């Protein structure tokens, strides 16, 4: 094996494309790149369509996830699609013009920097919603969320603005290559900018998201209040059980778990690729095979990182019931409901059965009292007459307690 690595044919082969690492690299990009690009873009388009139907402006979380999906789609088109075209058709789109080289390099870094900070912004808002629940809607509005995201994108543009004048097309044999235009910027790009990219893209966002998730879980686990999503009520709970002896409500909400998954998943997928730039800056490639090995390692970590931008639809489907319902409606043909006369019922069939069970368990309670208990349990406000109508359909009637008063003199005259 050592003789093979140090052989003269391996140092300067007649056909560099015949190297094993190069063959693996080409087919890796052709197969895995296509599996990430086209299903990822299709899923992101479906996510954008579903968010447009769910009213994006209804919450700040929807705004963040909508912008994140658009950003990830732009990264797939700008970065991943270009690499797939290079290895599949042997044609580089950014080498068409000097301006295309500058814009592509600028957008690639800017969008890659902006994507994790969207999750950081959402994590910070979740912390505010837990620690300051009564001021959250006043502090974190949709308009402020849009302004905050716009400011973050502007900062990312400023950080990467130097790429617009430090990159350009330079001769590379018989072809042109998009690289730094002078040696000073090449040194900065290889030895300095890689550390900034590691901190700004991977390490700092992961630390902030992890700290926010831990703070949220810690606050909810120590809180004496539990939020019931079905009724929208906040009630006090015992540390172990509720006042009725039922198990304590799970306070780790789906949004909190999703943010923790985002933090761990993002750093596991992006940290290896950011680290390769630092490692490769200290490696000197003195032969074709060394260059092929470095390119293969870079491509593997890059494709692993690209999974961040292709799995949005999986995470969103696991997050929201409304999103899952809209997603199923796209692929399942549903029979339209027949037109009905009159206004729709205010209670569903399971709620009607609940009314019947309440009446059977409390036979001496009046319809007004039973209606009040039903409203406190479900949050549905119906009239007492409507409640009686539900009981009449089950052949139940409210019980009336009649109190009869007798005079002692009448009783005495009756029995004596």
List keywords for this structure.
single chain; 416 residues; Rhopdopsin 7-helix transmembrane proteins; elongated
CATH class of the largest domain: Mainly Alpha
The helix-and-strand class reads mainly alpha
At the third CATH level, what is the topology name of the largest domain? Rhopdopsin 7-helix transmembrane proteins
Order of helices and strands: HHHHHHHHEEHEEHHHHHHHH
Major β-sheet annotation: 2 strands, antiparallel
CATH superfamily of the largest domain: Rhodopsin 7-helix transmembrane proteins
Spatial ordering of strands, largest sheet: 1-2
> Which architecture of the largest domain per CATH?
Up-down Bundle
Q: How many helical stretches? A: 17
Average pLDDT confidence is 77
Give the beta-strand count: 4
Give the low-pLDDT segments.
Answer: 1-12, 224-252
Percent of residues in beta strands: under 5%
> What is the count of structural domains?
2
Rg over C-alpha atoms, rounded to the nearest angstrom:
32 Å
* Helical percentage: 55-70%
